[in-house]
TrEMBL record, chain A:
<feature type="domain" description="ABC transporter">
    <location>
        <begin position="6"/>
        <end position="242"/>
    </location>
</feature>
<keyword id="KW-0067">ATP-binding</keyword>
<dbReference type="InterPro" id="IPR027417">
    <property type="entry name" value="P-loop_NTPase"/>
</dbReference>
<dbReference type="InterPro" id="IPR017871">
    <property type="entry name" value="ABC_transporter-like_CS"/>
</dbReference>
<keyword id="KW-0813">Transport</keyword>
<keyword id="KW-0547">Nucleotide-binding</keyword>
<dbReference type="GO" id="GO:0005524">
    <property type="term" value="F:ATP binding"/>
</dbReference>
Automatic annotation (TrEMBL), chain B:
<feature type="transmembrane region" description="Helical">
    <location>
        <begin position="68"/>
        <end position="88"/>
    </location>
</feature>
<dbReference type="Pfam" id="PF02653">
    <property type="entry name" value="BPD_transp_2"/>
</dbReference>
<feature type="transmembrane region" description="Helical">
    <location>
        <begin position="305"/>
        <end position="323"/>
    </location>
</feature>
<feature type="transmembrane region" description="Helical">
    <location>
        <begin position="174"/>
        <end position="194"/>
    </location>
</feature>
<dbReference type="InterPro" id="IPR001851">
    <property type="entry name" value="ABC_transp_permease"/>
</dbReference>
<keyword id="KW-0472">Membrane</keyword>
<dbReference type="GO" id="GO:0022857">
    <property type="term" value="F:transmembrane transporter activity"/>
</dbReference>
TrEMBL record, chain C:
<feature type="transmembrane region" description="Helical">
    <location>
        <begin position="106"/>
        <end position="130"/>
    </location>
</feature>
<feature type="transmembrane region" description="Helical">
    <location>
        <begin position="283"/>
        <end position="300"/>
    </location>
</feature>
<keyword id="KW-0812">Transmembrane</keyword>
<feature type="transmembrane region" description="Helical">
    <location>
        <begin position="137"/>
        <end position="167"/>
    </location>
</feature>
<feature type="transmembrane region" description="Helical">
    <location>
        <begin position="306"/>
        <end position="325"/>
    </location>
</feature>
<feature type="transmembrane region" description="Helical">
    <location>
        <begin position="257"/>
        <end position="276"/>
    </location>
</feature>
<feature type="transmembrane region" description="Helical">
    <location>
        <begin position="173"/>
        <end position="196"/>
    </location>
</feature>
Length: 498, 330, 330
């Protein structure tokens, strides 16, 4: 038996007091499609950096072809055939496709001069290797995301890799583009190149991978053949959360008028004739593959899709949502998808973050009422059970879960009627997650808040919502009662949409 | 995305070429004196210094930076070189230009150190180095102007050279300065570097994304040093050439010139965010700016309007660039 | 008490460093020339000269709060007082007692003209930056040229000499024995400090500078707030113009050109982050005092203005280096 392509033995890596990797062992065979699954913050990125030689492990061994490699540098990793395609692709938007494809090859060859004929040849060879047609003279910035990704893959293949690591490759792709990507990946595999897929999107892992390794908090918590896994098991392994089976029961009045009533909501190219209603106290989940229009639906309700058609009513009143301020004034709140870049002001204090939407309300003749502001912030810190002695601390000192509570709390200060949550617990550790869920249900139940919860995390939807909407290619394709739906049902349903 | 925005993105020089043609036709129609060879030749001659400095600014802008220190560097190189020539009683052409370029190079490398190692915004770095260098020249080296009677004769003779002349309608001779050839030579050299060397492509790559450039394997530190070093050397060269062309070495010269040069480069389609811009576009931008500002007199417009015109050109050009790049930033 | 300690340890370590720097400069200058430096006259003259520069530095800081910069402040300052001066000359007389003894209402009208000029000029910058998304550097280079250009067109070059006596009081009068410009500075700086730290507008402005994207998702009116910040910058520049012209009894298109670098230097030294999100008025005040002590000390030691420029430029580079080291140690 030949040695596996790459073998990691008991890797550990710490950054100061943070143990990014505690004990990770992983084996990837030649030509294998292996999936590395884990939530944000589980240590996936660190593991990629260790395999590609960017970071040196503190403990453990890396073996390539059975040979132990000490202090591997990025250059050595590349020489051994390890190539990484980062989430941002690392392309040059201002240069042509051909040049993007050829630059690294020419650099590796130590070329000083550029021959545009050779650039062209290299680019043509690259597209031939990948087996797709690319417009070589186009500037990369004019390509859609899927096109950029193909350029990145073609570029990686130029150095004849044996292991291609793809970091969250499906994040910005539509369902159809994911399909196309998988065809390319299978083709790469058929040439004996192993692919390590790094993702937290379960459905896609199940479809493409042969073997899977799940890590959580820097440790391997499950691994094996993909056949032994289903979506529920992967989720449980990733989150460490046993399925809470209680579910959310909506005990409101079924005859009460709707809080939110959406009729024929259409945004050209993104949303197509969406109609649904939500009553006070309901928690309605929104599920769908990437590119299904889930985020677009949220943005439309938050006033960020000015050109929408159709009618949106809140408490029976028709609204014209042509700006974020209009939506906020009507009592609509939105917790965005990416907490770090869209939710938080990282350089500011907890108080400033908490009060971000309330500064106008808390000022008289433009002057902030500091006493009242401090009181309200303190109250909300207590109500949201944020772990900090004072609101005067930098928000960066909070854990993911506590930081998310700040973003949610920010909106509660405005006493909203409708709370839209996009990925409410992404990158939040297990314990904190349950707490956030409890809080959301309590808000819905006690305050009669309407909640729209968008999530990739199916158990999260099944456990916390009383109804779940399924979107696909901008259309509403199913509306399910959560009580009558299991996670497996939902998973099958979504799988069928592919 | 509209087709026009795309065309402008691929060929930034299209816009400036159109502006130049319109400007030339309009000025020529209003006052046919414009078409006289002596006027055309003097416009070309007037674009030499601004043009060489614009090449320097183009290099910096391609990498995503901006430079306002080059007029000070140019003056420092010119004044120190001429002073040294007088002190050592040396006259010549090649060595002095080598010295001026070296002074510029050294000063440019100082910029590079601050930009690369200290990660400071290039505008603020170059504001600091420019002021410090100007203060050093005027405060330490001297404030007196060196006039034609003291200027090294060979230097003057070199800058007076003409390589082409025609007889005009009124029988007078109009000659085209050889310095235009020097400018063309430098422009071709910069173009070749940018277009046909890995280093040049590295400058574009750096402007496209520093992290991506590093991951592909470019030595971003070396590229940054080359950019600022080369920009400084070009500025030093231009400074001495300027002194030779106007037969004086004035340490207070070129104040505020950075604005004209930046205006020309932006007009030529270069983006302040880096990665976009060409030598041909820059040369057209310089020519357009020179044609417009130098034609105010023959158009009967008071020269006090010159600042307003330059400002309006900067704003118009950047507004178009902002519109072109809007999609990318949003 | 604990919050005070926290503030000293936290974001305000920069203030502490500035205090130390000021004390060091003071001690150094006092030690070098005790008999000439430690005289009331030295400090008194600082209280007349520093305010105009301080206001420009505050204006620069406000623009930097959102990651921008305003290179047109000098142009705005000059244009404001030239317009007011021309107004005085046309309603009063170009010179003589009628101008000097102009009644208060007319002088107030002139002040209104100057402030309105600053507000309108700032609004133009704000429109370009916030609505048309032109890069602040280029937008304000362009408008700065236009404002300076209009000054040239209006005056033809020479200074507008002679202002009413009441106007002059702002630049060189005293209030209860304290320099009037200092009083204006303290009032205006206090107002800006209050607006930035205690009003919804100021707090939102800082948040927008910290993370413009999150600001959109938090429902802040980013465009309007950034626009208003440039209006504020313009108004501050015009107040600086009033002080400058009041002190010198003249207004000219190229007054205060060297203030641009100094304003940037004071803003950066005061701990303003040119990338946005951090800046404080007390920091500006301290940096201003430190640098004014330094430059008066140097002038007493018979350093020429050029050498002082050299040192200012060097100081800017040094403060960049220190800021970089601070970031690294964090």
């Amino acid at each position: 038996m030949t040695a596996p392509l790459i073998e990691l033995r008991h890797l550990g890596k710490s950054f100061g007091a943070v143990h990014a990797l505690k004990d990770v062992s992983l084996t990837i065979g030649r030509g294998e499609i292996h999936c590395l699954a884990g939530e944000n913050g589980s240590g996936k990125s660190t593991l990629i950096k260790v395999i590609s030689g960017v970071n040196q492990p503190d403990r453990g061994e890396i073996l390539i072809d059975g040979e132990k490699i000490e202090n591997m540098s990025p250059r050595q990793a590349i020489a051994r055939g390890v190539q990484v395609i980062y989430q941002d692709f690392s392309l040059f938007p201002n240069l042509s496709v051909a040049e993007n494809l050829a630059l690294s090859t020419e650099l590796q060859a130590g070329k000083k001069l550029v021959s545009w004929r050779r650039v062209r040849q290299i680019a043509e060879e690259a597209t031939r290797k990948l087996g797709v047609a690319l417009e070589l003279d186009a500037l990369v910035e004019t390509l859609p995301t899927a096109g950029k990704q193909l350029v990145a893959i073609a570029r990686a293949l130029m150095s004849d890799p044996r292991l291609l690591i793809m970091d969250e490759p499906t994040t910005a792709l539509t369902g159809r583009e994911v399909e196309a990507l998988f065809r390319v990946v299978r083709d790469i595999q058929s040439r004996g190149i192993a692919v390590l897929f790094v993702s937290h999107k379960m459905r896609e892992m199940l479809e493409i991978s042969e073997r899977i390794t799940v890590i959580r908090s820097g440790e391997v918590v499950a691994s094996g053949d993909i056949g032994d896994f289903d979506e529920a098991r992967i989720t449980r392994a990733m989150t460490g959360q046993e399925l809470a089976s209680e579910g959310y029961r909506w005990e409101g009045d079924p005859t009460a008028p709707a809080l939110l009533d959406v009729q024929g909501l259409t945004v050209p190219g993104q949303l197509d004739d969406i109609t649904f209603a939500l009553k006070p106290g309901e928690i309605v989940g929104v599920s769908g593959l990437l590119g299904s229009g889930r985020t677009e639906l949220a943005l439309a309700l938050f006033g960020m899709k000015r050109g929408y058609a159709g009618e949106i009513r809140l408490s029976g009143r028709p609204l014209r949502l042509d700006g974020v301020q209009a939506a906020i004034a009507e009592g609509i709140a939105y917790v965005p998808e990416d907490r770090l870049t869209e939710g938080l002001f990282l350089a500011a204090t907890i108080d400033r973050n908490m009060l971000a939407t309330s500064h106008d309300r808390l000022s008289r003749f433009g002057v902030m009422q500091n006493g009242q502001a401090a009181r309200e912030s303190e109250e909300m810190i207590r109500e949201m059970a944020i772990a900090t002695p004072t609101g005067n601390r930098p928000v960066t000192q909070l854990s993911g879960g506590n930081a998310q509570r700040v973003v949610i709390g920010r909106w509660l200060m405005n006493d909203p009627k409708l709370l839209i949550l996009n990925g409410p617990t992404v990158g939040v550790d297990v314990g904190s997650k349950a707490g956030i869920h409890r809080k959301i249900r309590e808000l819905a139940r006690a305050r009669g808040l309407g909640v729209l919860m968008i999530s990739d995390d199916l158990p999260e939807l099944v456990d916390n919502c009383n109804r779940i909407l399924v979107l696909h290619r901008g259309r509403l394709v199913a509306e399910l009662e959560a009580e009558a739906t299991s996670e497996a049902d939902l998973s099958t349903r979504l799988g069928a949409l592919q | 995305m509209s087709g026009l925005a795309n065309a402008l993105r691929r060929h930034p020089e299209l816009m400036v070429a159109a502006v130049l043609v319109i400007a030339v036709l309009a000025i020529g129609t209003i006052n046919p004196v414009f078409w006289q060879p002596s006027n055309l030749f003097s416009l070309l001659r007037a674009s030499v210094i601004t043009g060489i400095l614009a090449l320097a600014v183009l290099l910096v802008m391609l990498s995503g930076g901006i430079d306002v220190s080059f007029p000070a560097f140019a003056i420092a190189a010119m004044y120190l070189t001429v002073k040294a020539m007088i002190a050592w009683q040396f006259d010549g052409v090649l060595l002095p230009f080598l010295m001026a370029s070296s002074i510029g190079l050294a000063l440019g490398l100082v910029n590079a150190v601050f930009v690369h190692y200290l990660r400071m915004i290039p505008l603020i770095v170059t504001l600091g180095t420019g002021t410090a260098v100007r203060g050093f020249i005027l405060g330490v080296v001297g404030t007196s102007q060196i006039n034609i009677d003291q200027m090294p004769p060979l230097l003057i003779a070199f800058a007076r050279g003409e390589f082409f002349s025609v007889t005009q309608a009124d029988g007078s001779q109009a000659g085209l300065s050889s310095m235009v050839l020097v400018y063309a030579g430098l422009a071709i050299a910069v173009h070749l570097i940018l277009r046909h060397t890995m280093l040049g492509r590295g400058i574009y790559a750096l402007g496209g994304g520093e992290e991506a450039a590093r991951r592909v394997g470019f030595n971003t530190r070396r590229i940054t040093f080359v950019i600022y070093g080369l920009a400084g050397a070009l500025a030093g060269f231009a400074g001495l050439l300027h002194g030779a062309m106007i037969w004086t070495a004035n340490p207070r010269d070129m104040v505020g010139l950075e604005l004209d040069v930046i205006a020309a480069v932006v007009l030529g389609g270069a983006s302040i965010f880096g990665g976009r811009g060409t030598v041909i576009g820059t040369m057209l931008g310089v020519l357009t700016l020179v044609v417009i500002t130098n034609s105010l007199i023959i158009l009967g417009v008071d020269t006090t309007w010159q600042r307003v015109v330059v400002g309006a050109i900067v704003i118009a050009a950047t507004a178009v660039t902002a519109w072109r790049d809007r999609k990318r930033i949003a | 008490m604990s919050t005070l300690l926290q503030r000293l340890r936290g974001s305000d370590t920069n203030l502490l460093q500035l205090v130390i720097l000021t004390v060091l400069i003071f001690a150094g200058m006092a030690a070098l020339n005790p008999e000439r430096f430690l005289r009331p006259y030295v400090f008194e003259s600082i209280t007349f000269i520093a305010p105009e520069l301080g206001l420009l530095a505050i204006a620069m800081m406000v623009a930097m709060l959102t990651g921008g910069i305003d290179l047109s402040v000098i142009g705005i300052a000059n244009l404001s007082c030239i317009l007011a001066g021309l107004f005085f000359h046309s309603v009063g007389a170009p010179r003589g007692p009628e101008l000097v003894n102009m009644p208060l209402p007319l002088v107030l009208a002139g002040i209104g003209i100057a402030l309105a000029t600053g507000v309108i000029a700032g609004a133009i910058n704000g429109l370009l930056v916030a609505k048309m998304r032109v890069t602040p550097i280029l937008a304000t280079i362009g408008t700065g040229q236009i404002f300076t250009g209009i000054c040239l067109v209006l005056t033809g070059g020479p200074a507008v000499v002679g202002f009413p006596a009441i106007w002059g009081q702002f630049g060189n009068g005293t209030v209860f024995g304290i320099a009037a410009p200092l009083v204006v500075f303290v009032v205006v700086a206090g107002l800006v400090w209050f607006v930035l730290s205690r009003t919804a507008f100021g707090i939102n402005l800082t948040l927008i500078g910290t993370n413009p994207r999150a600001a959109v998702f938090a429902g802040l009116r980013t465009q309007r707030t950034v626009f208003l910040s440039y209006v504020m910058t313009g108004a501050l520049a015009s107040v600086a113009g009033i002080l400058l012209s009041g002190r010198t009894n003249a207004a000219k298109s190229d007054y205060g050109v060297s203030y641009l670098l100094q304003a940037v230097l004071i803003a950066v030294l005061a701990g303003t982050n040119p990338a946005g999100g951090r800046g404080s008025v007390p920091g500006i005040a301290l940096a201003l005092v430190a640098l004014m002590l330094l430059s008066s000390g140097l002038q007493i030691m018979r350093f020429s203005n050029f050498l002082v420029d050299l040192i200012w430029g060097g100081f800017l580079l040094l403060s960049i280096a220190l800021a970089a080291l601070r970031m690294r140690s964090r």
